[in-house]
Amino acid sequence: MLKIEIFEDDVKVNSRTMPGKDGKPPRIIREQDAYAHLSGQITGR
């Protein structure tokens, strides 16, 4: 099982805008750092 955890003190959302193509509106991409629990170890991004 893969468990993703976001700690309250590390909640930071990074946003960036990608321009639209072929007449489509631009897209807003939101990124959030998270940590994955793998076999008892915590691996950060």
Task: Provide a quick synopsis of the model.
The chain has 45 residues and is an all-beta fold. The protein has strands spanning 3-5, 13-18, 27-32, 35-38, 41-44.
Overview features:
mainly beta, single chain, 45 residues, elongated, 3-stranded antiparallel β-sheet, two-stranded antiparallel ribbon
Q: Looking at the structure, what is the overall shape?
A: elongated
Radius of gyration: 15 Å
Tally of strands: 5
Q: Could you state the oligomeric state of the chains shown?
A: single chain
* Average pLDDT level: 79
Question: What's the helical proportion of residues?
Answer: under 10%
| Widest sheet, order of strands | 1-4-5
Strand content: over 45%
Which class best fits the helix and strand makeup? mainly beta
Description:
The chain is an all-beta fold. The protein has no helices and five strands. β4 and β5 (41-44) form a beta hairpin. It is elongated and about 45 Å long.
Q: What is the fold's blueprint, element by element?
A:
Blueprint: E1 3-5, E2 13-18, E3 27-32, E4 35-38, E5 41-44
Antiparallel strand pairs: 1-4, 2-3, 4-5
